[in-house]
Structure formats: structure tokens, C-alpha cells
Design a protein that fits this description.
The structure is a single chain. 23% of the residues lie in helices and 25% in strands. The protein is built from 13 helices and 25 strands. Strands 1, 2, 3, 4, 5, 6, 20, 21, 22, 23, 24 and 25 form a 12-stranded mixed β-sheet that branches. Strands 7-16-15-14-13-12-9-8 form an 8-stranded parallel β-sheet. It is globular, with a radius of gyration of 24 Å. Residues 1-33 and 521-530 have low confidence and may be disordered.
């Protein structure tokens, strides 16, 4: 669906002023004029990689030579608003955290600062926590936040709930470092499975079996027990409360990471009916605990949400339908859901836009391994509000990882850890030199995260032209942020037009650039209003 700006925000752009500095808000209200005292300047930065990171663009002036020929044009419609920006970041999975803690304290702080500091680094600002063990860990065994001692079979009172493992593995310490260098950083969390005792097969890791009549297709055996839906919801509440006691606000949870995934690492199946009841139970328990934590449903691939061309898709969009037995209405579940979370590994990303327009729910990209800033731009244009990278820190050898695609219920996890490697992630820690390196993509990604702020609203803009792509946001202070990607091997001149006023910038070859400017007329209007 399309949305309109409020009357104040829809004031036509008549004057553009500078909004750019080394950090997201630096010099936000400082205007600079041409020597003749006329039109205000628009400035920005660009990155091609570590060698040229967040470098200043040449200054541009509004309505300067409107007949000047350009290589590409971007036309912005400030009245056509889309989704709010939430953030860009990565997961704080146990493997990534473990590798960061192989650095010296000074190097670890240097790495975190480069990643998250909005002034001196990339300004990454949205991070995924795992509730218990995910599918990627460095140190066995896998764990939940409510593992039971010997002789105990159930814990409906959650007496044994503990985040001690999160503390011991330095996950909490890493969050504290992130908060130090980016106090505006936000956090959400996902569980890969309920504790073993809440499941029908009494095991935390996944268990698979062949579908009847098939020799290649599997299903997930371990299911959430129907009588454990409510206690699983309380388990989520306990996690949010435990982190709050450490000074960490978890502002959202996903219903479950990749429900029904046919794998042997931590996983669990929850049927559509269980998803509906669990969503209602979670929001009920949040209210009882006076938490305003949001709930993201789905947290799985585009394809698993809906694919009209496939009979194998899980069609989890049905969570918003009325239950066949009348026990739950689709409206109840839609009211409980604050967003729909997606992973990009299978399916068409257009599903995000379709889900947004068909349900009115924000969509979030909660896990991806794609480091391409072009993909970030494209996904934001398809209405994703966030972009979260998965498992982005390994050592120089690409391991140790306890992850496997094998459908083997008796897998040798020690062998998996010795042989599974994921090289060339965003951050590589050299365990010999106690130093780290980052990929060049970080600096281009920073062209988004350094300058966008949570709450900025995307506005419609014209399609890519002549190797130049774009995404444009209206910022909370009445300004605009445009991120431009130039995939050409030569520089491109680009005219940006908003409400009849325009300026031209030169975007260097192979770079991503960010321009920031402000609607002075709207600011002046707010200043004059009693």
C-alpha cells in the first residue's frame, strides 16, 4: 500500500540546505552558500573501499545550471512514503563473538569501533541476538537457556532458566562494547529451538526423517509440544528480562528462526496453528510483564512465506488466516504481529513488497550472508526496513564452525567443527598476529548506516539509470538522505530532483555515495509556529 506524508511533512521543497558531516548528524543545521549569496550547498561522501572511505564529494548547489546535461537522473516523490529504516548490522552469534575475543583488548575495541561508531566507523546499528545456541557455534555443546540437570524432566516454572552461558561466552561483553561506541544501537533476538524438554522428541538439536514415499525430501521431526506453547512464551519473556538486567534492551523477538527447517543443527517445527497460538501467547505474556517488545513473525525465506508457483512452499502467510477450528482469528494474529521477518536464501525478494502491501505490516530482513551494498539498496527499495548479516566473523582459516547441511541424525559434531569453514566473511581475525581485517564492502555499507537514522522514511524515487541506482529517505528533521550506487567504471553525473528543485552531484566510478540536504522552508515553518 502507498502512504502519504502528513500535511507538515508534505510541504513542497523550496530551499535545500546542507546536512552533511563525518557522522550522521554532524553539521546537520549548518548551511553554506555560493559566493554570490544565492542557492545553498548540498554535500556528501562516497566510498569505493578501504582505500577511499567516506571521502567528501564535490559540493553541489541547488538549481545550479538546470539545463546541464547529466548521465543519470533521480526524481523523488516526497508524497509517496514507504517503510521506516530500522537499521543495518550483523548477528552476535557465538562463533563471531568468540573470534572477536581472540583479539587483544585494544584490537577488539578497534574492530568494534570501526564496525559500529557512527562518526569514526561504519555506524552499524542493528544486531541480532540468539536465544540459546544457534546453528553456528564454535564451542560445543549446543545449549538452550533452560537446560535441565540430571533427573529433572520438565521445568514449567522456568526455575532453571539462565543466561549464564551468554555471559561466559562474552556475548554480553560484546554488546556492552557496541553500546559504548554506538549508544543508539538496537537489538532483537531469535531462538532456533525451544529447550529440549518442550519438544516432542526431547532433543534441542534438529532431527530429520524422510517424507513418506520420498528418498530425497525430509521433514523436521522435533515439534513444539502443544502443552508447552505458553511456557515457551514465558521463556521469551525471561530472556528479555534477563538482558534488561544487564542494561540491554531487546526491542523485538522473532517467533522462531526458520520454523520447520529440515536440518540436524538446532531447529524445531511449529505448525501454522501453533504459530498462531504462540504469537498470541507471546504478546499476552509481554503485556503481563509490561514489556513493549515487538514480535516479528515468519523469520524464514521469501519462498516459505508464499510462492504461487510452488506446491512445496510452506505458505506461512496462512498465519494471518482464520484457524479452521475457529480457535484463532486471522485478525488476532495480525494485531499481535508487529512485522514480518525474511531470509533471502530461497525465493523472490519481491515477496517483501507484496507482504508489505498486502498486510500493512513492516518487513525486516533478519538474516542474510550477502555483503553486496547493491543488494542492500535493492532490498530497501523493496520495502525492507533492516538488513542483518549472519555470522560475519571467523578466523583466517574460516572456522571453527559447528554447522552442517547433512541430513544425518548421528552426525559427528567434532568432525563437523574440524572440517566446516566459512572464509572471507566481513571480519577476519588472524589468531597468529592477534589482528583483524575487514572487507571493502564495509565502507560502502557505511554509506547507508552512517547517515540513516531509525525512523527515517523511504520515499519513492525513480528507477536505476545508466549504471546508477538509488534509494532516498526523508529524515526526521525534515531533511533527505539519498544513497547512490555507481556500478560503472567511469564517474557519473547525477541530477536529483525533489518537488521541482534539483542539484547535480558527481558519483565516482565503482562507488556508493550519500547526499544529505534539508528542506529549509519546512524548518522555517516549524520555527515560526507558536
Amino acid at each position: 500500500m502507498r502512504r502519504s506524508l502528513t500535511a507538515t511533512a508534505a510541504v513542497a521543497v523550496t530551499t535545500l540546505t546542507a546536512l552533511l558531516g563525518t557522522g550522521p548528524a554532524a553539521h546537520a543545521d549548518r548551511a553554506e552558500s555560493r559566493p554570490d549569496g544565492h542557492d545553498p550547498v548540498v554535500s556528501g561522501t562516497y566510498s569505493t573501499g578501504g582505500a577511499q572511505a567516506w571521502q567528501p564529494l564535490s559540493k553541489a548547489w541547488t538549481d545550479d545550471r538546470p539545463d546541464r546535461p547529466v548521465d543519470a537522473s533521480v526524481v523523488v516523490d516526497p508524497r509517496a512514503t514507504r517503510q521506516k529504516y530500522i537499521g543495518i548490522g550483523f548477528s552476535l552469534d557465538e562463533t563471531s563473538v568468540s573470534n572477536l575475543w581472540k583479539l587483544t583488548p585494544a584490537k577488539r575495541e578497534q574492530a568494534i569501533r570501526l564496525l559500529v561508531d557512527p562518526k569514526h566507523g561504519a555506524g552499524l546499528d542493528r544486531f541480532r541476538l540468539t536465544i540459546g545456541s544457534p546453528d553456528v557455534i564454535e564451542h560445543l555443546p549446543f545449549w538452550s537457556e533452560d537446560d535441565l540437570p540430571g533427573g529433572v524432566t520438565e521445568d514449567f516454572g522456568l526455575k532453571y532458566f539462565s543466561v549464564k552461558r551468554d555471559v561466559d561466552l562474552h556475548i554480553i561483553d560484546t554488546i556492552k562494547l557496541i553500546q559504548r561506541y554506538n549508544p543508539k544501537a538496537t537489538f532483537f533476538a531469535s531462538a532456533w529451538s525451544a529447550p529440549a524438554w518442550m519438544k516432542t522428541n526431547d532433543r534441542f538439536t534438529g532431527e530429520v526423517a524422510l517424507k513418506p514415499g520420498s528418498t530425497t525430501d525430509y521433514y523436521q521431526v522435533g515439534k513444539l509440544r502443544d502443552d508447552c506453547i505458553d511456557v515457551f512464551a514465558r521463556y521469551y519473556v525471561k530472556f528479555v528480562q534477563a538482558y534488561a538486567r544487564h542494561g540491554i534492551r531487546v526491542d523485538a523477538l522473532t517467533l522462531l528462526n526458520e520454523p520447520g527447517m529440515d536440518v540436524v543443527y538446532p531447529a524445531m517445527d511449529i505448525s501454522i496453528a501453533q504459530q498462531q497460538k504462540l504469537a498470541l501467547a507471546i504478546k499476552r505474556e509481554f503485556r503481563a510483564a509490561r514489556l513493549n517488545t515487538q514480535l516479528y513473525v515468519h523469520d524464514f525465506n521469501f519462498w516459505d512465506w508464499k510462492d504461487p508457483h510452488s506446491t512445496a512452499t510452506k505458505n506461512y502467510h496462512r498465519i494471518f488466516d482464520d484457524a479452521p477450528d475457529g480457535s484463532v482469528s486471522g485478525k488476532q494474529v495480525r494485531d499481535a504481529a508487529d512485522a514480518i521477518a525474511f531470509h533471502p536464501y530461497w525465493g523472490d525478494p519481491q515477496v517483501m513488497r507484496d507482504a508489505y502491501e498486502q498486510t500493512g505490516k513492516p518487513v525486516q530482513l533478519t538474516e542474510t550472508s550477502d555483503l553486496s551494498p547493491s543488494t542492500i539498496l535493492d532490498d530497501f527499495r523493496l520495502d525492507a526496513g533492516s538488513y542483518i548479516l549472519w555470522a560475519q566473523t571467523t578466523d583466517q582459516y574460516g572456522g571453527t564452525l559447528h554447522w552442517t547441511p547433512a541430513r544425518d541424525n548421528n552426525v559427528d559434531w567434532e568432525k563437523v567443527g574440524a572440517t566446516t569453514k566459512w572464509p572471507d566473511r566481513l571480519v577476519t581475525v588472524n589468531t597468529d598476529t592477534k589482528d583483524f581485517t575487514v572487507r571493502d564492502e564495509l565502507y560502502k555499507i557505511g554509506q547507508f548506516s552512517k547517515y540513516l537514522s531509525p525512523g527515517d522514511v523511504r520515499v519513492d524515487s525513480s528507477a536505476a539509470e545508466n549504471d546508477v541506482s538509488n534509494v532516498v529517505y526523508r529524515s526526521g528533521n525534515g531533511g533527505y538522505v539519498a544513497v547512490l550506487g555507481n556500478s560503472a567504471t567511469t564517474d557519473r553525473t547525477v541530477r536529483i530532483t525533489v518537488a521541482g528543485h534539483s542539484f547535480v552531484v558527481t558519483v565516482p566510478a565503482g562507488s556508493f555515495a550519500t547526499c544529505r540536504w534539508k528542506d529549509r522552508s519546512a524548518a522555517d515553518h516549524r520555527t515560526r509556529t507558536p
